[in-house]
Design a protein that fits this description.
Radius of gyration: 33 Å
Shape: elongated
Bound molecules: zinc ion
Order of helices and strands: HHHHHEEHEEEEEEEEEEHEEEEHH
Distance between the termini: 67 Å
CATH superfamily of the largest domain: Urease metallochaperone UreE, N-terminal domain
Low-confidence stretches: 77-112
Strand content: 25-35%
Number of helices: 9
Structural class: alpha+beta
Number of strands: 16
Number of domains: 3
Helix content: 25-40%
Length: 375
């Protein structure tokens, strides 16, 4: 199905400002709202289209992406989709619904509740990828996030210098308009002022009345030792500023840890597999292994069976936010030789004649017990 252009959906020009978008969206959304068009799937479809279009075009970030890439900007694998710190998503729609329809269908009731101008800013998410060792030992990394900050020129009022917002003429400052719908008197958020009861007549030039501006901001992320995949680090108040100088949301740095060549993590323990030859297993050997903190030696005793684990205490990952470390567990795997030359085969044949293994079936439990006895 080909998607209709978002600007067409909202019947606005491509350079429509936020107020025009909002006004048009409010009008269309009310016209097509499912509650007002029961049993009309076309209306519901239109309603969803409008909501989607408004969700994108009302967000400066998303709008820029849409202007550049069209619908492709939001269909997975889009340019710049990876690592995008602005992952508003579903909750945006919730906000819009709460904002517009919460009061619109608030039937009866005293009404008259004015929407607050001041809103808390959105939380932001930043995905930070770490090397395996960086997660184990900790690391300081500087990241740059783009976010909305309170406009310095108008200090978040949205009004030009020296001009204060004036009372909305449409609703007389009440923030709501009432209209008759069937038996009910329905209070609807004022479409002119957005329910705030005031209007900015002379908008700030810097933020065009938006009260916030897009900025880039660097933050030094201190990754503590012992973090794991999907560990979240919260930076309170480092998210987006709220509109009208509202409090900022939080920033969540979500960690993605790259895999290691041979170590796997199990909590704070590290695991790896060490192949050894049958003669090494039978005669015993000393193995050198490169741990994350340097070389260590494992003494493999005579008669070691495949699957035997050796634990190097304290050579694992530091416990996050506490003392101590996990262990390094090395699992021995005895390798059966695949290609043998003539001489090797002859030696093994001679060896085989001196060794007696009963080739009769046994249960797993019993086999493991016997194996223990011989190892
Ligand atoms: Zn401003
Ligand atoms: Zn108003």
């Amino acid at each position: 199905m080909t998607k209709v252009d978002f600007y067409e959906v909202l019947s606005v020009s491509r350079d429509a400002n936020d107020q025009e978008l909002k006004t048009s969206y409010r009008k269309l959304a009310m016209q097509y709202h499912p509650d007002r068009n029961p049993d009309d799937p076309t209306a519901e479809e239109k309603f969803k289209e409008c909501s989607e279009a408004y969700q994108v075009l009302s967000d400066p970030e998303k709008r820029a992406a849409y202007d550049r890439y069209g619908h492709a900007a939001f269909s997975g694998g889009a340019p710049g989709a990876g690592g995008n710190p602005f992952t508003g998503g579903a909750q945006d729609l919730g906000d819009i619904f709460g904002d517009i329809f919460g009061e619109m269908f608030n039937m009866g009731g005293g009404g008259g509740r004015k929407a607050s101008r001041v809103q808390r800013g959105r939380d932001l998410r930043y995905d930070l990828t770490l090397e395996f060792e960086e997660a184990v030992f900790g690391k300081e990394k500087e990241i740059t996030i783009r976010r909305m900050e309170t406009c310095v020129d108008c200090k978040g009022s949205g009004a030009a210098r020296g001009k204060a917002p004036v009372t909305c003429t449409q609703c007389g400052g009440r923030g709501q308009q009432r209209f008759q719908q069937g038996f009910f008197s329905v209070a609807r958020t004022c479409s002119v002022c957005g329910g705030t009861g005031t209007l900015i007549v002379d908008p700030c030039q810097t933020c065009r009345g938006e009260t916030r501006v897009q900025t880039e901001h660097s933050i030094l992320v201190k990754v503590p030792a012992g973090v794991e995949q999907d560990t979240r680090i919260r930076y309170q108040g480092e998210g987006e500023a709220g509109k009208f100088a509202g409090p900022a949301g939080d920033l969540y740095v979500v960690l993605n840890v790259k895999a290691h060549k041979f170590f796997e993590r199990d909590g704070d323990d590290l695991h790896c597999v060490m192949p050894i030859s049958f003669p090494q297993a039978a005669l015993g050997t000393e193995l050198e292994i490169q741990t994350l903190e340097g070389p260590a030696t494992i003494k493999v005793p005579e008669g070691t069976q495949s699957g035997k684990e050796f634990k190097l205490r304290g050579k694992g990952v530091p416990h996050l936010n506490s003392h101590g470390k996990g262990d390094l567990v090395v699992e021995i795997r005895v390798q059966t030789p695949g290609k043998l030359n003539k001489q090797q085969k002859e030696l093994l044949r001679q060896l085989s004649e001196t060794m007696i293994v009963e080739n009769t079936p046994t249960s797993r439990g019993l086999f493991d017990k016997v194996k223990e006895m011989f190892s």
